[in-house]
Specification:
By secondary structure, this protein is α/β, with parallel strands linked by helices. It contains 15 helices and 9 strands. The chain has helices at 15-22, 31-43, 68-72, 82-85, 101-105, 108-113, 156-163, 168-172, 185-188, 197-214, 228-234, 239-252, 256-272, 280-288, 292-297, and strands at residues 5-8, 59-60, 73-74, 79-80, 90-93, 115-120, 123-128, 132-137, 176-179. The strands form 3 sheets. Strands 2-5-8-1-9 form a 5-stranded parallel β-sheet. The chain has a two-stranded antiparallel sheet with strand order 3-4. Strand 3 and strand 4 form a beta hairpin. It is globular.
């Protein structure tokens, strides 16, 4: 759960439902994670009656009117905010552009460092914030840009103003950007069951086993947290794949951070496919998860 996700789609396409189900495919809390999360909720008086130990990953979904202090923590006596309450769990920010831009900007440090430091005159306090950020937004103010069933009423200036509420540096820290299209009627009326959460979780656990073996010397390491040194060691590319990545970086104007995120995601895609080597098609899929950089933000 070290990769952050942004979903873009029209109203009613299932973004909120998808976000709420992500926790069901993640590995269960380990004892150390459960103790850390419980400690935060206990200090805040948020534990349910009779609950002595949190066994499920937290899912936090604050409203877009939340303040900086409410999101990252603060107050005259510093207290944890939503990002710490989502420690070892998910923080879901629906209607991302509706959040105050300054409030969103304070997420940049926690997403990089897995903690947040609040400074006051008497000293500073550091709260843990190792979480998965899941964000959702419409493609434009009216919500129907690119929708084949409804006409978008927004002009280019309105669309540009809307998406510019999210800064490039924050977007750069989100690993995966995907478009969520409307669900076709044939799928809504299909009587066959789709893939259930338990099956997907088994695939996730298998990919985690690959990572456990890969990082056996650093047990808490995951693909999403690989430093440049680990990336060079574990994400070696064949010449054709390296050429593909070079073209993507040059044509899409991606940053060094986005370059590394593509390699980390490629490594995870290969793990899910039980592949030791990152192939071109693994890399191509990871690059596609960054195309919104170009399509919506003009980079």
């Amino acid at each position: 759960m070290e990769s952050h996700l942004l979903m873009i789609g029209s109203p009613g396409t299932g973004k909120t439902l998808l976000a709420s189900r992500i926790g069901t495919i993640l590995p269960e809390l380990q004892l150390k994670e459960s103790l850390e999360t419980t400690r935060i909720y206990s200090a805040m008086g948020r534990l349910s009656n009779g609950e002595s130990l949190m066994m499920q990953r937290p899912f936090r979904s604050p409203h877009h009117t939340i303040s900086e202090a409410g999101l990252v923590g603060g107050g005259s006596t510093p207290a944890p905010g939503e990002i710490s309450l989502a420690h070892h769990g998910l923080l879901f920010l629906d209607e991302l552009p509706e959040f105050n831009r300054r409030t969103l900007e304070v997420l940049r440090q926690p997403l990089e460092e897995n903690c947040v430091t609040i400074s006051r005159a008497i000293g500073s306090v550091t709260f843990p914030a190792r979480l998965m950020l899941v964000a959702a937004m419409n493609p434009c103010p009216c919500g129907y840009r690119g929708d084949t069933r409804r006409r978008c009423s927004c002009n280019p200036t309105q669309i540009e103003r809307y998406v510019s509420r999210i800064s490039g540096p924050l977007l750069d820290r989100i690993d995966i950007h995907i478009e969520v299209p409307p669900v076709p009627f044939r799928e809504l009326s299909n009587q066959e069951d789709g893939t259930n959460s338990e099956t997907i979780r088994e695939q996730v656990l298998e990919a985690r086993e690959f990572q456990t073996h890969r990082f056996k010397e650093t047990p808490e390491m995951l693909n999403g947290k690989m430093a440049p040194r680990e990336i060079r060691r574990h994400c070696k590319l064949k010449p054709e794949a390296e050429s593909l990545l070079k073209q993507a970086v040059e044509h899409m104007g991606l940053s060094a951070r986005a370059h590394d995120k593509i390699l980390r995601i490629s490594r995870t895609i290969a793990d899910l496919a039980r592949a030791d080597q990152i192939e071109s098609h693994h890399l191509s899929e990871a690059i596609n998860y960054r195309t919104l950089d170009r399509n919506y933000w003009g980079t």
